[in-house]
Design goal:
With 314 residues, the chain is of the alpha+beta class. The protein is built from 11 helices and 9 strands. Strand 8 and strand 9 form a beta hairpin.
Length: 314
């Protein structure tokens, strides 16, 4: 198995399913509230957004917000189970460290951090996440196939670095560095950007055949990356980011370039690699976008690097 994939049921999921089977026999867990069928359980009402509010969203955005609501309820239950202790602790520790809430409190937005904590933060050689465990448990509990499919799309997603290629009507055209994959994206945050910008975002596909309009979804508030020198922000140079990948990809230990890129963007080189980058690279923000500057492996390029924070930007 490659370092960048998780295609089989891992030890955490197996232990959770075994524990749930025991608890089911003892009737100490409300399994109906975990399953959340068509009528939905009361826990969903504590979700991130209500069904009424979802009606005002673009349909592509709405289905993923719905999935986020559903999986957050399931994850809340799972984090209390002993087999998920390491995953739960990693989430809690990062939450304490970075206080995700969006600027000005923290440059880590809730949409960014939730996806990192549930779908990217992993343990073990099989790279299990709270998301992979939730998929196994949800499937075992008989959750709807369509919901499980949404969970899988979110689990398979990752952050990426994309070049802004321009706009078409209400869509932003993004092309990923390294892979060259192109996406016509809706951006719920509202930021349309400018050609040539480099965005650090999580792009989600249309999940169902009935929705095939060729659009993708930028799920988090866009992080727009540039350089910071003498108190001045300038657009990023894509060649410099390609040089970053030349330096970083070999450090993943994955031979295949495509898999190494996926591994780097999803898991980083350390558990909090991208969280640290966002914190230290923060420059400024608007309601619809956040400015970052510098490179993950060049401390002096980041405005708030621990190495340079007492000295200020170059």
């Amino acid at each position: 198995m490659s370092k960048s994939g998780n295609n089989t049921r891992g030890p955490v999921a197996r232990k959770v399913l075994k524990a749930l089977e025991k608890e089911k026999k003892r009737k100490t867990i409300d399994f109906d509230s975990l399953r959340i069928g068509a009528k939905q359980a009361a826990e969903l009402e504590r979700g991130l957004i209500t069904e009424t509010e979802m009606r005002d969203l673009d349909p592509l955005h709405a289905v993923y917000v719905y999935a986020q609501n559903r999986i957050s309820v399931l994850v809340e239950q799972l984090t209390g189970l002993p087999p998920c202790a390491r995953l739960a602790q990693a989430y809690a520790d990062a939450e304490d460290e970075y206080m995700p809430s969006g600027p000005p409190m923290s440059p880590l937005t809730m949409s960014y951090f939730f996806c990192w904590g549930v779908f990217d933060s992993s343990v073990g050689d099989s790279r299990e996440t709270l998301g992979t465990v939730a998929i196994e448990v949800g499937s075992a509990l008989g959750m709807e196939d369509s919901v499980i499919a949404l969970f899988r799309h979110m689990q398979e997603s990752r952050m990426g670095l994309y070049m802004h290629q321009g706009t078409s009507d209400s869509l932003v055209m993004l092309k990923e560095l390294i892979t060259g994959k192109e996406h016509a994206c809706i951006v719920p945050a509202g930021y349309m950007g400018q050609p040539g910008e480099i965005w650090f975002v999580r792009v989600l596909p249309e999940p169902f055949a009935a929705m095939k309009t060729g659009r993708s979804l930028v799920f988090n508030t866009p992080y727009v990356i540039g350089t910071w020198s003498k108190d001045r922000f300038s657009p990023a140079n894509p060649q410099e980011w390609e040089a970053f990948f030349d330096r970083a990809l070999p450090k993943t230990g994955v031979d295949d370039i495509g898999q190494a890129h996926t591994h780097l963007m999803k898991y980083g080189l350390t558990p909090n690699y991208w969280n640290e980058y966002v914190m230290e690279a923060y420059v400024n923000h608007r309601q619809d976008m956040i400015l970052l500057a510098g490179f993950p492996d060049v401390p002096s390029s980041r405005p708030h690097s621990r190495m340079t924070e007492d000295l200020g930007p170059e």
